[in-house]
Design goal:
By secondary structure, this protein is mainly β. The chain has two domains: 88 residues, Pseudouridine synthase; 130 residues, Pseudouridine synthase (2-Layer Sandwich). It is built from three helices and eleven strands; from the N terminus they run ββαββαβββββαββ. Strands 1, 2, 3, 4, 5, 6, 7, 8, 9, 10 and 11 form an eleven-stranded mixed sheet that branches.
Amino acid sequence: MDIKDIKIIHEDKHIIVAEKPPKVPSQGDPSGDPDMLTLLCTHIKSEHPQAKNPYIGLVHRIDRPVGGAMVFAKTKEANAHLSKQMQEKTFKKYYMAVVCGVPENERGELRDILVKNAETNMSRVVKEKRGRAKEAVLEYEVLQTVDDEKEGLLSLLKVELKTGRHHQIRVQLSHAGFPIWGDTKYNKAFTKRRGWTQIALWSHSLRFTHMKAKKPSEYVSMPPDEFPFALFKKEEQQ
């Protein structure tokens, strides 16, 4: 993995919006594998050789198995500007997810309390907000449902992440009864499957206001044209 494998969606003096490939960490981790922060730092150095120690700020994270749009700050001012929008909840994050089954409601809000288990690196829904438990909120819309001969009923959801908890979308959708296809942690149909299965969750779009603009802009990353996303109409994934 090197910078040539990273798609740059948008870049200017203040930010970089890039498409994180699945399996690539958002930032460095104990595996030592190439991560987005390091790769983009290399990119800036190659574009601007005079910048020996360029600034690259992590604004948000995406689970390692998940791909899609991420924004990084190229200045401390831009990082502060984006972080403020995150705190004020004006920074919008949308995901595409293929789930097993069909949600009862075409649109809905999921509001749960999650707690993370550091030993297993998994989160779960609990009844009370105690200790390290935190509220998690998302909204979803069912865009299309198909009946696959092998996998059965699958639904394409557009998810707006209202909070940013550990494995939030994966945990909440599973708890609601429609787990994400390919999720080897929270979908019982996949936990015992051998080998790698690509989770059908994709960071589709980010909507925020650039520090040099007055109105929000949207930056989009389309899910790969592979199973199971390929089962659904492209216009539904715009």
